[in-house]
Structures
1.
Amino acid sequence: MSNSSEPRRRLLADIWFPERHLYIRSHGEIRGYVLTTGRQMALAAVAMIGGIWALIASGGFLFNLAYQSQADDAVARARAASERVNADLQARLDSAVLRMSSTTGSLEETAVMVERRHAALVNVMGMFRDVQGAETALRPAPPMETANPVVRIAAVKLDQERLLARAEGFAESRAERLRLAFRLAGLNPSAYFDASAALGGPLVQGDDPEALAAVKDVDEAFAARIQRAADDLTEMRGLADAASALPFGRPAEARTTSGFGLRFDPFSRRPALHQGQDFAAPLNTPILATAPGVVAFAGVRSGYGKTVELDHGDGFKTRYAHLHSIAVQPGQRIALGQRLGGMGTTGRSTGVHLHYEVWMNGRPQNPARFIRAGDELVQ
């Protein structure tokens, strides 16, 4: 079958690429070249490969050009959106300036209104500056340096709107991070702070913008915005206060060597429940209180060696064992991060380390959950 098809292929090649003669004159001499069928087929193949390569290269170039064009369009759209926002703010400022410039009477009235609003904002926001991060988030913008009082008043009005928006955003984001920390520790946030009890914030009893407007001598619409921001900030501070009383801190600057749960006891070599978390560091590394509390025990316990136990209230206790030294006494009030003693290897211990336990309502908890919650709050 293959022998009969070979002459056919040769015949087709001769038809498509018949043998040709090429004559070239050079320096008075004529040279002849024979373009055989095979040579013509080889040249055709080279030409075809070159054409395909050129097509692919052109296609890649066009693709890159189109992609770059799309990227440029995206950048242009983003720039246009930013310019629209800036233009909108500027238009609002210009509009406010025009409205206030219409009559002298309206300018004076607006100045009084702005002063009252500013006083109310400073008073309310000042109530929350003890919360971590609030000092920066709730700080008013510096006054605009311009001799035109109309422009200055309009700019202050816009800044008041921005300050309220920042207060609401800060309270919402911080409260959400606090709720996440509670959940990481396996706790229900609503069990430690009731949001419904915070209605009215620190200003008036109940959600009453009209009463607040009378108390702060501002318009009712602005009072309603202050009330909403104050309620959000009050809930956030309530969660922060509850979190500050829980053992979310780290007991030592040390590496973890053994976690909570079932493990092989280093002495008996049998499975046993490890009710805490171990940290290893050099001898006498400071051991720190993970939450405020009262020293419930400071001395030697069987198996634990030199031990400090803190009562944090609401059913929470922490235990710090195998200490080399103890720096506190029973009944002493302890602040968050206060030094309790130094790391050691007393008691049933195989080396210098801290054995740290967290107890809630008489049951041991996984300390890693509480440490992870604390890490979330300091981010």
Note: The helical segments are 2-16, 37-100, 104-125, 134-137, 149-184, 209-216, 220-244, 367-377.
2.
Amino acid sequence: MPREVREKQMLDAAVQSFGRLGYRAASMDEIAELAGVSKPLVYLYLNSKEDLFTACIRREAAALVAAVRAAVDPGLPAERQLWEGATAFFRHTIDHPDAWAVLHRQARTHGEPFAAEVAVMRDELVAFVTMLIGAAAREAEGAGELTDRDVAGLAQALVGAAESLAGWANDTPGVSAREAAVTLMNFAWAGLSNLMAGERWAVPPAADVVQ
């Protein structure tokens, strides 16, 4: 069997095991058994449990980013691009729950270097969303007051909301990718639309702010 095919089997088994059992509880014996190979072969191909987990993170992060990018047609209006990207994000995370568990829960809670690998993925998504929001701002007549820093902050907020929603959708039976994407757009795009129209939230006077 070609090396890439055998390695894919091992990574598939590892993602399932890490996603369902957690990094600590998953064993190389179980991963080898799921992959239909010997444990020494897993070590031969992927060196250690840490290297295997890192390879899983990198593969699944790349697949998620690729799915989002592939869904977005740059010829569409910015709002439609954001919708298509959001729908693709939730479709991928819902269709690959073990992979999302690895990225969203396991990698972030077991320290470096695993958290750093996920941060790379997040930075890619934030950069992509920053581009989409920037394009929307350029299309809108009232968005001239939005600075690059405003756009960057909005992109961070949007990606953070999408990540939280994906965690909720995967934990809540019956939630579809479309429903999650609609929730995100209702939460985010309504506010973005106001910003694009030149409307801003006014900070209350200090006396009215609850300390």
Note: The CA atoms of residues 116 and 186 lie 31 Å apart.
3.
Amino acid sequence: MEKQNLFKWKHYQPDIILLTARWYLRYNLSFHDLVEMMEERGLSIAHTTIMRWVHQYGPELDERVRRHLKTTNDSWRVDETYVKVKGKWMYLYRAVDSKGNTIDFYLSKTRDTKAAKRFFKKALRSFHVSKPHVITVDKNPAYPITIEELKNQKKMPVGIQLRQVKYLNNIIEQDHRFIKKRVRSMLGLKSFSTATSILSGIEAMHMIKKGQLISQDKSVQNQVEFIHELFKIAD
């Protein structure tokens, strides 16, 4: 999607739009917090406007950042965590490599073999992901079945090692904390589609924060410049 389509008909400059969306996805701020922060800059922006920006540009950020991530290693750590959407618990499948780099994520209404398969297929399509040599999971019985089916479909290496050892997954359980902390302060997500959009943006910002960009400069200023370049706007 080109710049003129992304920001067409917007009443604010692209850098202001990206600033508010980026801050919301990265920090424990409410939409009303951002309204007040923008007022200090002399800008009057409704909280619903900022909310729409987050829903629109969060998934776009996730999609655009993928080609600029360092390649993950082939040791996967897979786990699910829980996210409340419209008062109901949903399942957020997530995977990191042995160094803690995010591989992928997938929000599902169910926790079963179909959901696990959709997650693995999504992860295997990611530009920055190496096919796994070993996958560490918990005792969820869906994982061995799913991986065996993907092997038979030639979607996963035949010689892959599956480890169901809970303590080896501490690295991803620690990584869940940032996501859970950010979502918790939102006081509940209102629908499955908006939850998916917001989580995409949160995960994208988390990958950038962790230093997964190919660029070696991890400074905040470099991250801002990188996002502006992704969306083709001048500083």
Note: The chain has a mean pLDDT of 91.
4.
Amino acid sequence: MKSLEESRRRIDEIDKELVKLFEERMNTVVDVAKYKKENNIEVLNTKREAQVVENAINNLKNKDYSEEIADFFNHIMDISKNFQRKAIADKAINIIKEKYTIDLVESANKIGYIDKINHLSIDAMNLYFKKDLEVIKFEEYEDILKAVSNGEIDFAFLALDNAGDGHIAKMYSFLETYDNVYIKDKFIVDDNLNVINKNKSDKLEDLNKFIILGKDKYFCKDCTKVDLLVKIDNKSKSLSHLIRYFANYNIHINKIDSKETNIYRKEFTIYINFDGSLQDSNVLKMLYGLDGDLPYIRILGTYKG
């Protein structure tokens, strides 16, 4: 029986060879990325990935390692795709940074609101926008979302329930229905209309929380939180694969929820809130990667922390 030190020395030797092979593989990936960029070819190729895993399993002498070799190659291919997308995405990211930002206050002229949840809605709205506006009162969420979607109002200013941290779960179905309506900001005040920093308060249930919704993909430049909606299948590793994207870019997830979207196909809708900005290249590259890897992805909105 080999000693522990002998086994470790052998692992070190093998790792050295793995590093050489990995570097050679990544150099080849660079060539693949250049070709795909020049020929406008998508990074994701699921048939090719399945074939790579199948070949790896077939090349195994000890089939007891089949699951582990599949994990190994799936992870390598994730790294490869991520690297390719970084190479392809840079130009697109610079365009997004300029195109999809907006000053909410300066852009607002006509605002809709509903006051049945919180009587401070109109006062908080005037405090937020800090200028004279044309204000329209609505009775139902469906009506105000439709007005935003149709361009009848610039923004909707809505109160959230005081329970918990003002979670927007009740509005997800509306945001899925009106897919050109986005979260633009969230706004918290106490009963005296003092603005509260959410990150510095531990008594959110006693505060008044509001959300600003608007049309199209334009978000505030200084936003630091992102709400994301994606859809994944029910494969056991789909969620861990999704989470790995955030880990690869060191992006912190604050909240993650899910619901079963289709009971027959076992498709799930995942809602994720994470720290980040659409001015951050890492965030944009991650989103670019997810967009190529998942059947559905949508930025629900961004807002200040």
Note: The beta strands are 110-114, 134-137, 155-159, 181-189, 208-215, 225-232, 253-262, 267-275, 296-303.
